C-alpha cells in the first residue's frame, strides 16, 4: 500500500513538472516566484491540477435542522445583500513546492543548457550513491537486517505468535527490507558571481524588476553546477561600491553614469578575495547602456581585455530597455570584443526576453 501511494505521488510530481515545462517562459517572468524562494524551496502556482478528493452523495435532505426551502439562506447572514454572485467559472490553483535543484533541472532540460565545465584546480564532479530509503524489494547485498528483524517482530506480535519467554523471531519473505539509493552528483568547484548594476536616474523600478528576475535565474543555474558559490553585489552611477543583496535590488539614485567605476570596484574585489586559481569567476553587468562619455567606454573595453576577461569564466552584459538611456554601450562591446568568446551580451526589453537571455548566457556551457 505504501509503495503504491509513493508511486502515485511520484506520478503526480511528474505531471506537475510537465506543466511547469510547458509554461516555463511564463514562470521565468513571475515576480512572486522569487518572493517565495525561502531557504530551499520555491513555491510555484500551477493552474489546472487538482488533488484527488472524495465526492459525497446527495445532501439535499436539509442542513441539520430539518428540510430546507428553496431560496432559503444557509449559514450566517440575513440574505439582504444587493450584490449578485458571479457567473464565471473560477480557476483552480494549487501551490507545489519544488527544490531549487529540481527547478534548475527543468530549466536545463527545456533550454537545453549544457553542464558547465569548471576551470581551475577543482574540476572534479563526484558521483556517489546516497542511501536514503527502505524498499520491500532489492538485491541480497542491500538487505537491511535490523529493519527486517523489526518487521518480523512486529508481525508476530500483531498475530499473537510472539512468546517473550521464548523470543524466537523467524522472518518471512514479506518481512525482508532492503536499502534503496539514488545517485547524487556533487560538484566540487567553488564559484563567485559578481552582479553589477547601474542605479543612475535612467534605471527605474521597471528596469530593476527585470534585473531581479534575470539575476535570480542566473544564480539558480550556477548553484546547480557548483558546490560552493558566493554572490557579491556592486552598484554604480558615477561612482561604484559593494552593497548587500537587498540594497542592490532596491537602491535608486539620480546621478549620471560612469561604467568604468563598477569594473574598477570589481577588479579590487577579485584581487582581495578571489584568486582565479581557486575560483570560477562569473561577472554580470546590468545597465540601460547609457555611459558618461565615449572615453569612459573605451576605458571599460581596455579594463575588460586586460584586467577582467583573462581571469574569469564569463562576462555577461545584459542591457535592459529604458526610455532615458542611450543604449549604446552594448554596441561598443560588439565592436571591440566581438571575437572574445567569454563576452556574452543580451537585450532584455521586457520580461518575455528573459527566457532567451538565460539561454544566450549559458547555452554554450561556459
Characterise the protein shown here.
The protein is an alpha/beta fold and 366 residues long. The chain has three domains: 68 residues; 60 residues, no CATH class; 175 residues, Rossmann fold (3-Layer(aba) Sandwich). The protein is 36% helix and 21% strand. The protein has eleven helices and ten strands. Helix 6 links the parallel strand 5 and strand 6. The chain is elongated.
Low-confidence stretches: none
The count of β-strands is 10
Structural class: alpha/beta
**CATH top-level class of the largest domain:** Alpha Beta
User: Number of helical runs?
Assistant: 11
How large, in whole angstroms, is the Cα Rg?
29 Å
CATH topology of the largest domain: Rossmann fold
Number of structural units classed as domains: 3
Main sheet makeup: 6 strands, mixed
Helix content: 25-40%
Keywords:
alpha/beta, 366 residues, two-stranded antiparallel sheet, 21% strand
